[in-house]
Design a protein that fits this description.
It contains seven helices and five strands; from the N terminus they run H-E-H-E-H-H-H-E-H-E-H-E. By secondary structure, it is of the alpha/beta class. Helix 2 runs parallel beside helix 5. It is elongated.
């Protein structure tokens, strides 16, 4: 006898079938949620050295735990993924100005705190080297070699006049729909 409904489930096959269908549905939902535990999504919005370090340390740690990782790099986060030098000829005045004002590559980005006119990142790099901590460039390469999917936001690329050849190799162009498709299958999304 079901206490909530007052129906005798064993005597009423309709209620029994309905209950079995609900149980099966819940079991399928649990299995689906458990599958999502092995996926991590990061939105890399910041172009700061320390935040980029955190993003790629987390990404590499997640891959080491057999998680599928997607990084969606947008706005200032794309500074980290730029090549250290590239030609800006053939672009509009505003695009050239934006590209001239923004850092090119992970070795040129500043820190969010204690930047001290650019000395901060050099101090951090020195301390990291002294303590045998991988540099950001190595973390990015390691992430790519480990299968981390890095999506370069196409809208930001277009707005800022960035060409695919300005970015490091191995990135996928994509819009917010690409990120959301991945994020919808994950239970963890971090905004950095």
């Amino acid at each position: 006898m079901d206490k909530k409904s007052g129906h005798d489930v064993e005597k009423n096959p309709t209620d029994s079938n309905s209950l079995l269908k609900k149980i099966k549905n819940l079991e399928e939902r649990i299995i689906s949620l458990e599958k999502n535990n092995d996926k991590l999504n990061l939105i890399l919005f910041s172009g700061d050295f320390d935040k980029a370090m955190a993003a790629f340390i987390i990404a590499n740690g997640a891959v080491a735990m057999d998680m599928e990782v997607t990084i969606f790099a947008t706005f200032w986060g794309l500074d980290i993924l730029k090549k250290s030098s590239f030609n800006t000829s053939g672009r509009g005045f505003i695009e050239r100005m934006i590209l001239a004002m923004r850092p090119k590559g992970p070795e040129k980005i500043g820190t969010s705190k204690m930047n001290f006119g650019g000395i901060g990142p050099k101090l951090f790099r020195y301390m990291m080297k002294k303590k045998n901590v991988l540099q950001l460039e190595s973390l990015i390469k390691m992430a790519q070699e480990s299968g981390v999917k890095i999506i370069a936001c196409q809208m930001t690329v277009d707005i800022m006049g960035i060409k695919p050849t300005d970015l490091i190799d191995g990135l996928e162009p994509g819009g917010v729909a690409s990120f959301l498709a991945s994020a919808s299958k994950s239970n963890t999304t971090l905004f950095i």
